[in-house]
DUF1890 domain-containing protein
Amino acid sequence: MTEENQKTALILLGCPQVPVQTSMALYLVHGLKEHGIRPVVAGTVAARRLMEVADPGRFYLGEMADLDETIDEITEKQRDFDLCFVFIHNDSGVAYAGTMAYISKARVYALLFGEHAEDLAGEIEFPCEVVAAKAVHNPMPLKRKLDEVMRWAAVSKR
């Protein structure tokens, strides 16, 4: 598959308040690459800095971008993605996922984690795939679900 027609995935990272976000985002980047999908990580300054510190040699990370600038580019139809994974641990994460569901052609995956993952899942009223796990410090509940989701994402036509 050439870079021109390679499937792309946007990974949206909000505030990195919950410890599992950084490790699971890096794990997702790795998994997507393994499936031939080009990931782009967009996040807050703090989220991007944690990713850069966790992968200083850029073995996993490729393109990184500012969260709000990326949303603006999608809104202005300058850029879009095939898949979008939104890490959600609070209400603002739900809002970002909802925004993506309406402005992007991407298949949206809402990845809910943290103490209130199930409660937040109940707030989602827009089209997306919901993946929820009560993962705060231990990434394994979310990892197991992400493994399955990555298989779906790799074969999805959208």
User: Anything to note?
Assistant: The chain is about 45% helix and 20% strand. The chain has one domain: 8-155.
